[in-house]
Amino acid sequence: MKFYKLLSDIASRRDLTAGAKLVWAVVADHIGKNDSCWPGVRKIAADSGLSVSGVIKAVRQLESKALLQVDRRGIGRSNHYYLGNESALQSATLIKENNVAKYKQTVLQSAALDKVKCSTKCNRGALQSDTEALYKVQHNQINQLNQTNILRQNSNEFRLAELLLNLILERKSDFRKPNLQMWAVHVERMVRLDKRKLDHIEAVIYWCQADSFWQNNILSAAKLREKFDQLELKMTKENRNGDRNSKVGTSGAKPNPVARPGEFVR
Question: May I ask the CATH architecture of the domain 3-90?
Fold first, then answer.
């Protein structure tokens, strides 16, 4: 194996310190074409630019890697140095190649993982976009449905809701203004779902707001719908008993209703 090839293999080793590589190069230069050399530790330190302790550590490392053999002659005599045999250097080269292969595999795996992460992130982004788009569609549909269910102010349901509010305001002028649209929706449900008749609802509104007990308990269209059967039965019973003070439409000064009895639009 040629010297420059060996030097290249040593220089590319990642398991050697820079000092070990320098010491190996200095020893190899001293050996030349011979089998061994015997420079002193101070000579190697001077040629490599390392300290004596640094040379000793580097030699030990090279020995542990089988890249350098040392024949210690004892105190006062220089050691003999031999380069590691060709098989040891070939093993070192193989180790290097394996390390490079592992490094390449790690890089490829990392790149593949990044690609998967990117794909996952893109999919999440696409899923989020689809979810937002679906939410917008549903939101628009809900808005359209709400707009469809909005009752006009000239509708019978809205007029009855306003009638109930006017009767309450007659007794309590600072009554908190409600959402008449929601009140109208409750009246509409009374007609559509509960099968109440418009004139019956109007009669119960007049009666409950004239009754000393119920006028303080029926302060919304929702409560009117909830108690409607009870109110209607009570109103019917009092009418049968001939209590004129409780009859429908005899509660004193009657406010001008928005819709008069018998004027419901069919």
Answer: Orthogonal Bundle (1.10)
